[in-house]
Amino acid sequence: MLPDAVKKAGYLTVASDVPYPPFEFYDTDGKTILGSDPDIAKALGELMGIQFRLQPVAQVNIIPGLSSGKYDLGLSGMADRKEREAAVTFVDYMRNAGTFLVTADAKHHPMTLPDICGLNVAVQSATTMADDATGQATKCTADGKQAPKVMEFQSQDDAVLALRSNRADVAMVTAGSGAFIMTQAKGQFDMTATYSAGSILGIPVRKDNMQLAKALEAGVQKLIDNGTYKKILTKWGLDKLNSIEKSGINGAIS
Q1: What is the CATH number of domain 4-96+199-249?
Q2: Does residue 4 sit in helix, strand or coil?
Q3: What is the mean pLDDT of residues 177-187?
Q4: Which class for 223: exposed (0-12), middle (13-18), buried (19 or more C-beta within 10 A)?
Q5: Which of 120, 123, 160, 237 is deepest in the core (most CB within 10 A)?
């Protein structure tokens, strides 16, 4: 099902927002990329008989890089959203929800988006969480409340660092990431609540490359059906919060 050019080349160039644990992050050597997305890429490569070559790319640069032809696809826990579907085609492969991460001794414990009014909020740029925070800032002002100070960072690690260093009252991250961060931080953080019903996560490809999208959709579904997908997500603590039963194309909820 792969395009002939991909078969001939023997590889696909994959943009991935490293670090974004547990989806992708560096091992202790600072070079090897670990996580659920690299494992999925490896499994897809073995299934298709080609290499998936991951390249670290900031989230904000993934879609522009795809559109320019610099990368063949993105694999980075990216939300499939209607507005993004105007620029790329998504192959849906997971789901996720937003959550609030606070320090264990936090004074504020937001449970819903209106609870962030007046707080210092750390988010990663170009993410659904960043959009949610800035959108809520407008609503806070409209309701006569103090808007949150939204602090945007290039990486999720930097947003969490702002929380750890008390520059932020709360960090807004995905539920899968929040759960992983808590296991690694050993009591430093708490997740107060998931604040959204969740979104579909997709593998973006160029709009004009539907043949590749169809091949990836079939590949993801094969991994789901043969149990490889469940093993990978379970390994990274994502099975309960992030798994789906059926892949698809452009399945954005909003």
Answers
A1: 3.40.190.10
A2: helix
A3: 90
A4: buried
A5: 123
Query: Residue 81 and residue 202: Cα distance in Å, rounded?
Result: 9
Give pLDDT tens digits for 15-70: 999 999 999 999 999 999 999 999 999 999 999 999 999 999 999 999 999 999 99
pLDDT of residue 46: 97
Quickly list DSSP for 44-65: HHHHHTSEEEEEE--HHHHHHH
Q: Which amino acid is at 92?
A: D
Give the residue among 134, 167, 169 at the shortest CA–CA distance from 150. Answer: 134
Q: Contact at 8 Å (CB) between 95 and 200?
A: yes
d(C-alpha 251, C-alpha 245), whole Å = 13
Amino acid symbol at 93: Y
| 4-96+199-249 against 98-194: fold identical | yes
Q: What is the mean pLDDT of residues 128-142?
A: 96
How much of the chain, in percent, has pLDDT values that exceed 90? 91
15 — phi, psi (to 5°)? Answer: -85, 130
Pick the CATH number of 98-194 from 3.90.79.10, 3.90.600.10, 3.40.190.10, 3.90.1150.10: 3.40.190.10
Q: Where are the domains of the chain?
A: 4-96+199-249, 98-194
3-state secondary structure of 194: strand
Residue type, 213: A
In degrees and rounded to multiples of 5, residue 241 shows phi and psi of -90, -25
Total-model pTM: 0.84
**What 3-state class would DSSP assign to 232?**
helix
